[in-house]
Amino acid sequence: MKRLLCALWLGVGLLQAQTSPLTFYVHDTRGVAPDTPLSSSYAFANTPAGSSTSIVIKAVNSSANTIYWVNAFLADSASSFVTNNNFSITGQFVNTPLAPSGFVLFTINFAPTTLGTTTGYLRATYQVQQGTCSFTSGSNPCPSGTATASTLTGAGTDPQLVLTYQPANGSAVVLQPSSSTPFDFGNVSTSSSATVTFILSNRTAGSLATPTIKLQTTQFFASAFRLDTSALTGSIAGNSSATFTVTFAPGQVGVTDPSTALIVGMLSYPLKGTGIVVADIDALDISYTDITSGSPSFGKITRPQAATAIQFDQLVAGGATSSVLSFVVTNPTSSYNAVAVSPLRVSGAGFGILDAPAAPISIAPGSSVTFKLTFSAAASGTYTGSLSIGTRQFVLQGLTVVSPFPSFSLQLSAQPLTSQQQANLSIQFSAPAAVTGSGTLTMKFTPSVANVADDPAIAFLATNGRQLNIDLAAGSQTATYKEQSAIAFQTGTTAGTLTFTVEFVNTAPYSQSFTIAPATVHVTSATAVRQNPNLVVTINGYDNTYSAGQLSFTFYDLTGKVIAPIAVNAATSFQQYFFTNNTAGGAFALQASFPVQGDVTQVGSVAISLTNSQGQTTMTQTF
Amino acid sequence: MKPLVGLLFLAAALAAQVSAPRVGFARFSVGNVHIVSGLPANLLVGDVSIARADRASFSDFGGLLARQGEIVLVDANARLIASFASGDAAPVLNIDGALTTAIAWLPSSHSILYWDGKDFLRTEANLAGEVTAVETIKHGKARLFVSQADTSIAAVVVSRKTGQVLDSQSLPGIVGQAIAQHSFVVAADSKALIVESSNGQRHVLPIAGRDLTIERMSSDWLHIFSSSGEHWALHLTENDLQLSQMPPAREEAQ
Fold it and tell me: N or C: more exposed end of chain A, with fewer CB within 10 A?
């Protein structure tokens, strides 16, 4: 153990004793000024809180060895790996090998969130190629080190823009960014809402561009907050202010997600609100599931918030006729009273309600009611409506778009399709496309043979798969895959239906099916060989019905005279082959061996017949 | 006429054996070798790579694989039989029948390497030009296709034992990559595949691909592939000629 510790200490000491293989420069991305070495200390210009100042750094491998650039970071001390949040690094390629003289570029941003001077330490971690070591191997890793390139200082000055709000009583309150105490909208009934007007003040004499203002919400979840910046313009005049509002309108009981924040420029102001029950109807738990056939959101369950519109699936003119959301409204078991829901109503053109319970509606504690909302509209455009569940109000929104592409059809190089065939498919548009587009071409196979799920040979020949990404060039009337308009595929050896589906963005999916009919056994090659004392018959072919069974072999002598007719029931062999670990569809290789007593050279030929559900196939082979 | 006295079928048949039709083994990009089964126009490439190789040739009875300077002889199920450290980065391989048809041309040492049933044997042969194909023929001889300075191909017969040149004939009209298949010569250029029979009759099959390579998948199947990732399978026997597109191995398509 002592020896191991010593070895580890020596290893670390050896690398620390080496000088850094990296040299850092301040880089001018315009190429006007030459790179200047980054000194051991660098001072950023004074920067108002909420703004940022940046420099671009070029880190060069100045050693004779290849190194592995792990990453650079801004630490809070010269020996720390904890980052200083007043600085950030952007545009950095991490985990990159650098040959001698190779370099990486990245940007250091000083964006103070606090006033006064702050210090950060630019540090970079790397590995050095030595001997047979590996950058990525766990067993023989290359030695690593962390260089401290420069001490960076900057001063955060008074912010140019200040965010405040005016409470009902008293003077305006200044909001602090990144505060550990969120701005709290307080308790709000799920049937109600609270709106706060925020004031953004320009404390400079000159005009300032209005920063980007947005809500940070949890992705894929409805937000209980709604932002309205309609009163803002592109700039705020000197010593003036502008206002915007945030509304808290909960649709669910409980505290909002803690990651919710108001983002003003580069500054973040956490927000909080609590949905509460005031009247009985506020306790209702409301959720819906997208049950629109073919929707990417099919099956997704959403708990709506009153602040965010309930969004229906986008419809495409000529495509799916409606989008359907299935609602469940539950009165929790914790409720004391049954809740009367009146009205249950939908308004707005394009929106409808299905399967709603008959009025009067009363939901007992622990019980639920269900209904469906639909959206359908033939004309393109955005549609807005509302859903009332008693006093609980939700905005509804739907969108119908028109495909930017001409109509199209699928054409095959050969029809009807048969088994064991390679054919080409092309996607032809009725007119030259006005815009460039991309989409997918999918092939699906549905066998018509009972107890058969698929045929592995069915595939596009370019990829051995069943889906291709296709392109449509502006001005073209044919979609292509890798610039090929004839898209080759093979049909396999199982009877069934091949369905091709083409999907382009904002365009109704188009599908076309082609039947591969059941057929008699097809023989692609056969041999008859004398292997004294046996006669061996080998047949390659396919049975796309998986029903082959009865075989007959009639042997003839050299003069054509019948020697022996032999019937063989091979149903068991075929069934076992077709339905146990099938890897070749209906394709098969059959070998039948016939022991013979006597002179096998006197056998001249054999007539073979194979029978399946579609009939008999016959052929003759000579020995 | 001789009567068929004594000719008697002892049984209706041994149980008919049914299996997946086997095509052979093919080498795909990055050198992965996959089993190929199916029929013409209905080819299935196995999901699992059974070996990696820089060059490959297979017959119904076995195969030759070259990888990193080593040549390996395997049986019909790709199990190792013998290996030979040739040190050659780009040997020309062929096996088209029994294991004793296994033969290789080693360009760096100007040698023929062949399997005599027990050992690999090497014989130097002084040939001018680039050898593009090699095969074992009867009576202890080997035939090599040698590309000439004017891009034409000469079929040169040498003694496997001594390396002495016994015969040399030009193959008129054959240029580029060529390989012998049964009694045919198969040649590929960037526009077509040419199949020439021993009587000079030609079939021209349309194949468009850059830098075509031909490797044998089995005794009756050839694998033709381009540097841009297109694959074809040619089934060629004395009675049958069928060209099919072949899907790539799944890892190649990703």
Answer: N
